[in-house]
Design brief:
This protein is α/β, with parallel strands linked by helices. It folds into two domains: 2-169, 3-Layer(aba) Sandwich (Rossmann fold); 190-340, Glycogen Phosphorylase B (Rossmann fold, 3-Layer(aba) Sandwich), CATH 3.40.50.2000. 38% of the residues lie in helices and 17% in strands. It has 16 helices and twelve strands. The protein has helices at residues 16-19, 26-31, 44-49, 56-73, 96-104, 127-130, 137-144, 153-159, 208-217, 247-251, 265-268, 273-280, 293-296, 309-321, 323-340, 343-352, and strands at 2-8, 34-40, 82-86, 108-113, 147-150, 166-168, 190-195, 220-226, 238-241, 256-259, 285-288, 304-306. The longest helix is centred in the N-terminal third of the chain and has 18 residues, at 56-73. The chain is globular and about 65 Å long.
């Protein structure tokens, strides 16, 4: 039996990038005869405090503990057929672990990333750590890897500068798990919804002025599902703390799903996960005209793409006013995900990473 070690940043079943890029394929890999083991850097308790302000001593202890565990892990590498590394083995410093695995221990590395992680993009809570991350290590890990798995073409183009065995492996959705809900009660307010982590709530600031204007004309609600409330100038919204056990029911409260983005090189590396989640659940989706969104969405068919605030206002108004439009667009979006961005559609490509 082939053994695969997954070296990952976060505890299992806790981070979207891990859940929807590879963890949901573990059962499929096991049916193919692979034995799966996962080695997170951060413990479950450390993960809970990682992005909270202050907590410096606890964060430092968790960091040192994680580093020690990583080096101890090297003594077990000989027992694995290959090693799958998501993003990086260590959150700080040069790629020492990757070098030892590939060049000293001669193990095959499958390297996976779904953001432009060679660029500086660090949260305020961890700005000091950001300066120690060695973002340029991505190119070295690509060079030493057997295969590289990237979430979109922009990321793959960067990886191909250093490795020719590069696969575009999109973030995918389990469409059996993400199922549309039943129609809402007629007396419920029309709900415009957004979901994501604290690191992406900043994008909601783009739409605050539009929501203020829309609420003057329509009976609508804005709902935000996240681990932390957003910091924005829009007080009249409902915040729901994300809960894995309740995430599907939470998303089913949306009538319209939104994915606003800034238009910078960092956003070119985004893999459209929010949009895919909405679409999989039959929720009509509106996105910014940035990066991979332009490949996922066909404007006016399976969603709307917006270039500016007027576009956002027009598209939101159109969906708010037309139940039939919402239903048709939602169905087209789910069809797109099933055919091109579902676990089933991507299984053959994913398995090829290990062949």
């Amino acid at each position: 039996m082939k053994r695969i070690l997954f070296i990952v940043p976060y505890p299992a079943e806790s981070a979207p990038s891990q859940r929807f890029r590879f963890e949901q394929y573990f059962g499929i890999l096991e049916k193919q005869g692979f034995n799966i083991e996962i080695a997170p850097f951060w413990s479950a308790s450390a993960w809970l405090l990682l992005y909270k302000p202050n907590q410096t001593i606890k964060k430092t202890i968790a960091l040192v503990t994680g580093i020690v565990k990583r080096f101890m892990l090297l003594f077990k590498i000989h027992g694995y057929s290959m090693v799958f590394i998501h993003r990086e083995a260590l959150p700080l410093g040069p790629p020492i672990i990757e070098y030892i695995i590939a060049r000293v221990l001669k193990k095959k590395i499958i390297y996976d990333f779904d953001d432009a992680i060679w660029l500086l993009n660090t949260s305020e809570q961890n700005s000091i750590a950001g300066r120690l991350k060695f973002h340029h290590k991505v190119k070295y890990i690509c060079k030493w890897s057997w295969k590289v798995s990237c979430g979109n073409a922009f990321l793959a183009d960067h990886a191909r500068k250093y490795n020719q065995q590069v696969f575009i492996n999109p973030t995918t959705i389990d469409t059996d798990y993400h199922q549309p809900g039943t129609d809402k009660a007629s007396n419920e307010l029309m709900t415009i919804g957004w979901t994501g982590t604290h690191s992406t709530t900043k994008y909601l600031k783009l739409l605050a002025p539009i929501f203020l204007e829309l609420k003057k004309k329509y009976a609508i609600k804005v709902m935000v599902i996240s681990d932390q409330p957003p910091d924005w100038d829009f007080p009249d919204y409902e915040f729901i703390e994300w809960n894995k056990e309740k995430e599907i029911d939470q998303l089913r409260r949306f009538d319209i799903g939104i994915m606003p983005l800034y238009d910078t090189i960092w956003e070119q590396g985004k893999c459209g996960f929010k949009a895919l989640q909405y679409m999989a659940m039959g929720i009509p989706t509106i996105v910014s005209n940035v990066g991979v969104n332009k490949q996922i969405i066909k404007h006016g068919e399976n969603g709307f793409i917006c270039d500016n605030q007027q576009g956002w206002s027009d598209c939101l108004s159109k969906l708010i006013c037309s139940k039939s439009e919402r239903k048709t667009m939602g169905a087209a979006g789910r069809k797109t995900v099933i055919e091109s961005y579902s676990v089933l559609a991507n299984t053959e490509l994913f398995l090829s990473l290990f062949a």
